[in-house]
Structures are given as C-alpha cells and as structure tokens.
Specification:
The protein is an all-beta fold. The protein is built from no helices and ten strands.
C-alpha cells in the first residue's frame, strides 16, 4: 500500500519561500512520474507540477518561474521549492503519482501566505 507523507508547509508572508517535502513508502518507484497538487476549500484538487523519472518537469502557468520540483529517487522523495509566494498560493499541498485519480492520498501540508 502506498503511503505518502508531506511536510514543510507553514505560514509565510507574501514574497517568502517554503520547501515542501514528500516521502513515498511502498509502491512508489523511481519509474513513477510524480507530482504536487493543491487544494483549496470547496475546490477540487488540481495539478501544480510534474516531474518524470528522467527529471523532466512541467508547471502550471501561475507558478512557472517561482516553483521548482525535484526528486531524490534513492529516498523515494519529492520536493517543491516555492519562492516569491503569493496569497493565492494558499492551499493544502499533496504529492502523488502524476495524473493520479485514485484514493491513496497523504494528509497534505498546509501552506498559508499572508498579504
């Protein structure tokens, strides 16, 4: 069974930075493309950024140039460096396999950006 543990969220002022971490246990391999997602109250979870097994990356337009996804396959870990944060980045952030539509999700990590 896949277990995903996200951490690193918190409260930060606009313009600040955070680094999110995700540890995958059981069933996450280096061949999986991985992603970060975000969810705000009343809205569906949405894809923010993807990293392939070959470390190719793609970003949702609003975070391009400010967020950087990376991975350490030896540790089954995925990271999200978030710079120049804006209040609209406030959300619960989750990691999982890219384009995942199942029910195995971690608890997420809350990011709150104050103006």
């Amino acid at each position: 069974q896949v277990q995903l543990v996200e951490s690193g969220g918190g409260l930060v002022e606009a313009g600040g930075s955070l680094r999110l971490s995700c540890e995958g246990r059981g069933g996450i391999s280096s061949s999986n493309a991985m992603a970060w997602y975000r969810q705000t109250p009343g809205k569906q979870r949405e894809l923010v950024t993807v990293i392939t097994s070959g470390n190719n990356t793609a970003y949702e337009e609003s975070v391009t140039g400010r967020f950087t996804i990376s991975r350490d396959s030896a540790k089954s870990a995925v990271y999200l460096q978030m710079n120049s944060l804006k209040p609209q980045n406030t959300a619960v952030y989750y990691c999982n396999r890219a384009y995942y539509g199942g029910t195995d999700w971690g608890q997420g990590t809350q990011v709150t950006v104050s103006s």
